[in-house]
TrEMBL record:
<feature type="binding site">
    <location>
        <position position="49"/>
    </location>
    <ligand>
        <name>substrate</name>
    </ligand>
</feature>
<dbReference type="InterPro" id="IPR045865">
    <property type="entry name" value="ACT-like_dom_sf"/>
</dbReference>
<dbReference type="InterPro" id="IPR042199">
    <property type="entry name" value="AsparK_Bifunc_asparK/hSer_DH"/>
</dbReference>
<feature type="domain" description="ACT">
    <location>
        <begin position="389"/>
        <end position="451"/>
    </location>
</feature>
<dbReference type="InterPro" id="IPR001341">
    <property type="entry name" value="Asp_kinase"/>
</dbReference>
<feature type="binding site">
    <location>
        <position position="120"/>
    </location>
    <ligand>
        <name>substrate</name>
    </ligand>
</feature>
<keyword id="KW-0808">Transferase</keyword>
<dbReference type="GO" id="GO:0009089">
    <property type="term" value="P:lysine biosynthetic process via diaminopimelate"/>
</dbReference>
<dbReference type="InterPro" id="IPR001048">
    <property type="entry name" value="Asp/Glu/Uridylate_kinase"/>
</dbReference>
<feature type="binding site">
    <location>
        <begin position="219"/>
        <end position="220"/>
    </location>
    <ligand>
        <name>ATP</name>
    </ligand>
</feature>
<keyword id="KW-0028">Amino-acid biosynthesis</keyword>
<dbReference type="InterPro" id="IPR054352">
    <property type="entry name" value="ACT_Aspartokinase"/>
</dbReference>
<keyword id="KW-0457">Lysine biosynthesis</keyword>
<dbReference type="GO" id="GO:0009088">
    <property type="term" value="P:threonine biosynthetic process"/>
</dbReference>
<dbReference type="Pfam" id="PF00696">
    <property type="entry name" value="AA_kinase"/>
</dbReference>
<dbReference type="InterPro" id="IPR036393">
    <property type="entry name" value="AceGlu_kinase-like_sf"/>
</dbReference>
<keyword id="KW-0220">Diaminopimelate biosynthesis</keyword>
Length: 451
């Protein structure tokens, strides 16, 4: 049995959904189909999830959403028309959205989750109707009824262990099961969404639950490339990656697959195959425990922006027991999560995502660090980019750090910090956000270039 997930671009139009139908029905093992909300049809298009967020926020702020509401419904109307479906399905979708928008708003985060999730939920219903219209036995499955139980963290849910046992029962159902991605239900029955891009997570959970032989994740590229294709033209395709490599790369910016989506598949030893809906015969990229392919030391280069760093310096920091713990405790007291902590003998930097760090929080954090840790110097820097070079081969290869640092220096990029992951599968470079593209291109040329 295979679990197959189709991303937003694969279900963005009637034409795309016809491709989904062909792919699913071409292999009888493709039984469980996870779908996203309609995504972008072209570069400047807006995803239905983003329209829904706008719609929900407008409703919370002023109660008037006519234009945005119509923009959402129109996406489904266009799809239904292209697929030759009757108006019944559109009536169902409009009624559902109206009910959600007129529902309980006393908890805005919960309200927004319900609005967002309707994108995948209604698309799953529409796609089921299309499969049925083509004479195939297909059933829409609601995550509540299937027992996809998650933690009660709106917009950031995590699967709970009991979900897997519940989902196992899907194996016994007949026909093709169409399952909406992106959300589950808390123990007390409240709808909760995963973080953005979370339909990948749903697919992985289902693959684990039903013990699938493979989790196929269909998107709009032929493979995972060794670097973001928006930064380098025709980058090298990656045939095979280990779970560890893919997790590091997706965490660090490879938007093609959600970093949290690897764990459920990894735990059950289920390989993941990333494939292209527009070119399904291409082999795609396989994510496995151990790869046979021997790339060079580096398999991929990922980057992301929006980081800040808190640099702290204190003479004899290395001798002061508990310094690191007390520093991180201060951050924890403010509910701040950190990403990296490169350190030296007398100094340490803590890298955070800056969207959680406003000026008032910065003032209070800096004040406490100065007072409680009696540091010699503290500096906060904003708008950093973090670049990761990743590859299992780095464990055995000497000199990768030197090659990377030299390539960056030659291209005139100033390194703000360096960190080597303890697993030796990744190296992190912090640079100014404005240098991100230049740095990625220099590293790509060094490790994959032909010159
Ligand atoms: N290293 C990479 N390899 C492949 N695609 C990447 C990479 N980094 C970023 N991307 C982007 O990820 C996109 C696919 O992810 P996404 O837009 O979430 O698709 P979907 O709609 O299928 O969920 C690609 O179109 C590409 O622009
Ligand atoms: N539609 C949701 C969930 C998702 O996974 O979408 P996509 O498959 O288009 O990345 C989002 O945009 O976040």
């Amino acid at each position: 049995m295979k679990v197959v997930k189709f991303g937003g671009t694969s279900v963005a139009s009637g034409q795309q959904i016809k491709k989904v139908f062909d792919i699913v029905t071409s292999d009888p093992k493709r039984k469980i189909v996870v779908v996203s909300a309609p995504g972008k049809r072209f570069k400047e298009d807006v995803k239905v999830t983003d329209l829904l967020i706008k719609c929900g926020e407008e409703y919370l702020n002023n109660g008037s959403v006519k234009e945005t509401y119509e923009a959402v419904v129109n996406r489904y109307v266009e799809i239904a028309k292209e697929l030759g479906l009757s108006n019944d399905i559109i009536d169902r979708i409009s009624a559902d959205l109206q009910e959600i928008l007129h529902g309980d708003k006393s908890n805005p985060a919960r309200f927004m989750d319900a609005v967002k999730a309707s994108g995948e939920d209604n698309n799953a219903k529409l796609i089921t109707a299309y499969f049925q219209s083509r004479g195939v036995e297909a059933h829409y499955v609601n995550p509540k009824e299937a027992g996809l139980i998650v933690s009660d963290e709106p917009g950031n849910a995590q699967v709970l262990p009991e979900a897997y046992e519940n989902l196992k029962k899907l194996r016994d159902r007949s026909g093709i099961l169409i399952f909406p991605g992106f959300f589950g239900y808390s123990k007390d029955g409240k709808l909760v969404t995963f973080s953005r891009g979370g339909s990948d997570i749903t697919g992985s959970i289902l693959a684990n639950g039903v013990g699938a032989e493979i989790y196929e994740n269909f998107t709009d590229v032929d493979a995972v490339y060794s670097v973001n294709p928006n930064f380098v033209e025709n980058p090298k395709e990656i045939r095979e990656l280990t779970y560890k490599e893919m997790r590091e790369l997706s965490y660090a910016g490879f938007a093609v697959f959600h970093d949290e989506a690897l764990i459920p598949a990894f735990r059950a030893g289920i390989p993941v195959n990333i494939k292209n809906t527009n070119n399904p015969s291409a082999p795609g990229t396989k994510i496995v425990h151990e790869r046979t392919d021997s790339n060079g030391p580096v398999v991929g280069i990922a980057s992301d922006t929006g980081f800040c760093s808190i640099y702290v310096n204190k003479y004899l920091m290395n001798r002061e027991i508990g310094f690191g713990r007390r520093l991180l405790q201060i951050l924890e007291d403010f509910g701040l999560s950190y990403e990296h902590t490169p350190s030296g003998i007398d100094d340490i930097s803590v890298i955070l995502r800056q969207d959680q760090f406003d000026s008032e929080t910065e003032r209070k954090v800096v004040e406490r660090i100065k007072k409680e840790l009696e540091v010699d110097n503290i500096e906060v820097a904003y708008d950093l980019a973090v670049i990761m070079i990743v590859g299992e081969g780095m464990r055995k290869n000497v000199g990768t750090m030197a090659r990377a640092a030299t390539a960056l220096a030659k291209s005139g990029v100033n390194l703000e910090m360096i960190n080597q992951g303890s697993s030796e599968v990744s190296m992190m470079f912090g640079v100014k956000g404005t240098d991100e593209k230049k740095a990625v291109q220099a590293l790509y040329e060094e490790f994959f270039g032909t010159t």
